[in-house]
Amino acid sequence: MGLRVAVVGATGNVGREMLAILDELQFPADEVAAVASRRSLGREVSFGDRTLKCQALEDFNFAGWDLCLMSAGGTVSKVWSPKIAAQGCIVIDNSSAWRMDPDVPLVVPEVNAHALDGARKKGIVANPNCSTAQLVVALKPLHDAATITRVVVSTYQSVSGTGREAMDELWGQTKGIFVNDKPSPVVYPKQIAFNVIPHGGDFMEDGYTTEEWKMTVETKKILDPKIKLTATSVRVPVFVGHSEAVHCEFERPISAEEARELLREAPGVVVIDKREDGGYATPVECAGEFGVYVSRLREDPTVDNGLAFWVVADNLRKGAALNAVQIAQEMIERGLFAKQIA
Ligand SMILES: NC(=O)c1ccc[n+]([C@@H]2O[C@H](COP(=O)([O-])OP(=O)(O)OC[C@H]3O[C@@H](n4cnc5c(N)ncnc54)[C@H](OP(=O)(O)O)[C@@H]3O)[C@@H](O)[C@H]2O)c1
Q1: pLDDT at 339
Q2: Ligand 1 pocket, 39 CB below 6 A?
Q3: Which of 54, 85, 99, 116 could be bridged to 40 by S-S, CB 3.0 to 4.6 A?
Q4: Which residue's C-alpha comes closest to atom 36 of ligand 1?
């Protein structure tokens, strides 16, 4: 017996990736439904070698469904996730709506799968921000070995992290520039083609942006509240794959060699770290992949016990859809669904 799974936001970047991953991982689903807004009613989306017709969220009856993979944004999730959970359907949500709720586990299975034991409190589990997910997978083995005290991270985030319209904007501006069309930014406040924008989310009073703040608080909730983290989020003209330049300080010394060995053994991590031209991972190679790629490991001599490295992952996969499906797999392992899965 398998689960009945509804993918809400099935026409979006993350939703389409959810459907692809459910199929690729042969997730034990007896039935899968594609759900989106009324605008997409009847639209077909791919699920393996089949297609599913989209249903409208307002009309979908979640009674009898076991799992809702939700990626329709925070506003929709705030209203709908509690209603869906109240019908006995576990919601794994991709938005930021529930991440900091103390009764909602915020989970990256390689790091804090144990937090899932609280999943039935509200019936909602939160998926972290894409930049946090890949970061904590890389930090976890290093933290276990030498205790991280402080992290300085700069992100190089792809436009798919903002959604389909942002991908269209990069594509349109890029083509336009070759025929002398003046870029007219809509999704981003400045031109994104052939440019970089040091801004993600909304500005806060202290000058940080919400995208940066999320990395700080989510890392504390998932990995360790004692870790101090400061971030600079930057949007770059890349379609898929977020990159991060990370500087860590530890309680005890840790060499680049020791870190490399620890990371090679760590679940979900792929180390590509040859100190030669091209001996590192870039977003182009990581798009469509499951792993979190770590490169450029080196000691940072400017601080006590410092280490610097580069982390890349597919933001739609480990940063969103893959992590959500892995959470569901872990919940099956832990017997957290009402139904026994054979
Ligand atoms: N992209 C990433 O890297 C990433 C990573 C982590 C988390 N997330 C989060 O995941 C969520 C989705 O992101 P995305 O990139 O997939 O966005 P997207 O490409 O813009 O897709 C949005 C999806 O939500 C649906 N939707 C919008 N309003 C709806 C409503 N009122 N009722 C039902 N469905 C509705 C859309 O359906 P229609 O086609 O019918 O409008 C579409 O399927 C966001 O909360 C985002 O912050 C994204």
Answers
A1: 76
A2: yes
A3: 54
A4: 9
What is this structure's pTM? 0.96
- The answer to whether 286 is a known catalytic residue is no
296 C-beta neighbours (distance < 10 Å), count: 17
- Catalytic residue from among 68, 130, 248, 286: 130
| Span 280-297, pLDDT tens digits | 999 999 999 999 999 999
Is 155 in contact with 239 (CB distance < 8 Å)? no
pLDDT at 226 over 80: yes
List pLDDT tens digits, range 248-261.
999 999 999 999 99
What percent of the chain has a predicted confidence (pLDDT) above 70? 100
Q: Are strands 306-313 and 242-250 parallel, antiparallel or unpaired?
A: antiparallel
CB atoms within 10 A of CB 220: 15
Any ligand 1 atom below 6 A from CB of 151: no
How far is ligand 1, taken at its centre, from the CA of residue 147, in Å?
36
Rounded distance, CA 214 to CA 211, Å?
5
Residue 132 reports pLDDT greater than 80: yes
Residue 268: φ, ψ to 5° = 85, -5
Question: Which residue, by CA, sits nearest to atom 33 of ligand 1?
Answer: 37
Q: Are 62 and 89 in contact (CB under 8 A)?
A: yes
Ligand 1 centroid to residue 84 C-alpha, Å: 17
Q: Is 143 a catalytic residue?
A: no
